[in-house]
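Figure 2 data, in text form.
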Amino acid sequence: MKNHSVIAVVFTKNRQEVLLIKRRDVPVWVLPGGGIEKDETALGAIIREVKEESGFEVKIVKKRVKDDSFDRWWAKYPGTDSFEYNGKKFSGTRALRVKKEDCKAKIHKIILEAEYTIDDLIGALEIELSQKKENSFKTGQNKLSYLQNSLTYLNQKTYEPYIELYKAGHKIKEEQKYVGGVEV
């Protein structure tokens, strides 16, 4: 892989210390790492670079995704674009949850690559759904009909701007309860 590099964070077994390498060219301590060679994987490059720079043999410990992570996200993703908000019903015509196993694999990939956490993804989805429902209520038009199906949503990373809102502490507007046309 041309122009790509890796950096390794190597912990002791008790996770109390981390490996640092003193550079020869400048007097600083750095994490071990370097370039990925042609036909080498990123994981292979990490193992090679740590061995070259420190003499240590390392074991790659992959992050594991909790079993319920995907199910929590899947439960939040609307099954269809029909919904009720603030006592008003909005009809839709589309199924939104599709290809569950493909979505599960994509969610796990996102989490394992440490792009985002499941809480980031759920928080982003909740913000987007809240905005679409609120806009539907204000305009009288079903804005949830513009939500992509679940797999397209993940593949196109539609969640990213909403993750930024989530991380910035954006609050979801609570649905108002109406009884006989009066706000409660």
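Caption note: The beta strands are 5-7, 21-22, 29-30, 33-35, 83-85, 88-90, 178-179, 182-183.
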